[in-house]
Amino acid sequence: MATAKPPFQTLSSPSLPSPLKLHPQNTTLKFTSKPKILSSQNPNLPSPPKPLTFISILRSIPDWADGIKERRMKQRRPLYKHQDWIRHRSSLRHLRHLLSSLNSRVILSLVPPVIAFTSVAAVVASYNTAVIWHLLPEVFPVLRASSLPYQLTAPALALLLVFRTEASYSRFEEGRKAWSKVISGTNDFARQVIVSVEKDSSLKTALLQYIMAFPVALKCHLVNESDIRTDLHDLLEDDDLAIILSSNHQPRCIIQFISQSMQLLDIEEPKRTVLESKVTCFHEGIGICEQIMGIPIPLSYTRLTSRFLVLWHLTLPVILWDDCNWIVVPATFVSAASLFCIEEVGVLIEEPFQMLCLDELCVRVCENVQEAMRSEKKIREALIMKKEAASRKPSLNGHPTSGDEQKNRSNSSSSR
Questions:
Q1: What is the pLDDT of residue 217?
Q2: For residue 299, what are the contacts with CB-CB under 8 A and spacing of at least 6?
Q3: 187: closest CA among 262, 79, 282?
Q4: What is the rounded CA–CA span in Å between residue 35 and residue 184?
Q5: Is residue 360 part of a domain?
Q6: Which long-range contacts (CB under 8 A, 24 or more apart) does 285-291 make?
Q7: Cβ distance 339 to 305 under 8 Å?
Q8: Per-residue pLDDT, 38
Q9: Which residues constitute the domain of residue 187?
Q10: Which residues are CB-contacts of 327 (< 8 A; sequence separation ≥ 6)?
């Protein structure tokens, strides 16, 4: 039997850092009566080191760069405030960005291709130098070619990169707009519940819990390696959380909780219809986000861009040899770093949910709903006091007048 927690225990706290912060799970070794010798049978035991091979040595640098990039992708991104915008448009931003280049995940991800193509340029330059200095037999020719094909295909490569990046940014913008609708829909839904539901305080509190939990569950559904149990632990009761965790689609399960809670509310039918219409934005948000997540830019487009860039930089040293000689090495380095950087940015923003500050948005939603619930009673009491004070204003004969008498008096004075 799950232990019951006080309903909506996070209402007293101004923020929700704990449920939306990822905590690593503690892994413990479990010993049984029969010890397991093979590491493949016991996943808790460390696996034996893999033998070094030529392929593993070649993959060491790409694996290192990919590991750093993926760890940086999991970092929480804050929402910008006024001071952040001042720093963002500061005149020192160029120097700051240059000095922080080695910490950029985009630049670190370019280490494998840039090193590879710069090495190819160095090999071509060394070979041509050896042929020119007659260090090799005369059978070996100097690798050179006309630059006319590159002049003709350079605009095509530029347009391909621009269209690829623009298509990725369109997906990023679509994901941002979808989450904006989810956040605004959550705030509006909670406001309608707070205003419309006057009775059933326990069921009303539970309904607001489910409304706040939906964007958190949607974030965990979209972001890789999210711990939904930790994120929803302080937002939902243990019994509700167990049902949601056992579901194959946690956001839709929370929508079912919301729908069933509204059916049990003791409210008028028009108000119930208005509240049920607010669930539509949740279904639309799930549909748009899952479509973005499951359908990438056509793979032929991505593969064409990658193959074009690879072939371009493999033959670039041969094209530039007559004009640059050994300068082909830094020229290839600059070209690979620039063009592959543009392509890498397009790949990163193609999946927008890792780039958006979803954790902060979920925290902001919970804070807004909690603040609305805390201030509901105070605002209602203040408005009632104003209404009563207005009804007690003295009339011409010294007696208090009602609101209708004051309205008639104001209309007669305006007609004069």
A1: 95
A2: none
A3: 282
A4: 55
A5: yes
A6: 285/178, 285/179, 285/181, 285/182, 285/185, 285/218, 286/218, 286/251, 286/252, 288/174, 288/175, 288/178, 289/175, 289/178, 289/179, 289/218, 289/221, 289/222, 289/353
A7: no
A8: 36
A9: 104-371
A10: 320
Q: Does residue 46 belong to any structural domain of this protein? A: no
Instruction: Write down the residue that tokens 């037999």 correspond to.
Output: 137
Distance separating the N- and C-terminal Cα atoms of the chain:
74
Q: How many domains are there within the chain? A: 1
Report mean pLDDT in 10-residue bins for the chain, 416 residues.
42 39 38 36 53 63 67 73 88 87 79 90 94 89 88 90 92 94 93 83 90 94 89 90 93 94 86 88 93 92 92 92 92 93 90 90 91 84 82 58 52 52
Q: Which ranges in 197-249 belong to alpha helices (H)?
A: 201-222, 228-232, 238-245
**C-beta atoms surrounding 263 within 10 Å:** 9
Q: What pLDDT was estimated at residue 28?
A: 36
317-355 pLDDT, tens per residue?
Answer: 999 998 889 999 999 999 999 999 999 899 989 999 988
Decide: 361 and 184 in contact? Cβ < 8 Å.
Answer: no
The CA distances from residue 387 to 380, 383, 391, in Å, are 11, 6, 6
- Residue 200 buriedness (CB in 10 A; 0-12 / 13-18 / 19+): middle
Residue 266 lies in a domain: yes
Measured between alpha carbons, how far is 376 from 367 in angstroms, rounded to an integer? Answer: 14
DSSP state of 19: T
- Residue indicated by tokens 């149990």: 229
SS3 400: strand
What pLDDT does residue 61 have? 64
Kindly give, in sequence order, each residue whose CB lies less than 8 Å from that of residue 377, ignoring residues fewer than 6 positions away: none
Q: What is the amino acid identity at position 179? A: W
Contact 251, 279 (CB under 8 A): no
Domain annotation covers residue 379: no
DSSP bridge pairs for 400 = 394
- 3-class SS of residue 153: helix
Of 76, 366, 78, 364, nearest in space to 213 by CA: 366
The answer to whether residues 220 and 231 touch, using CB atoms and an 8 Å cutoff, is yes
Per-residue tokens: 163: 């269209």
Q: Sign of the CA dihedral 376, 378, 380, 382?
A: negative
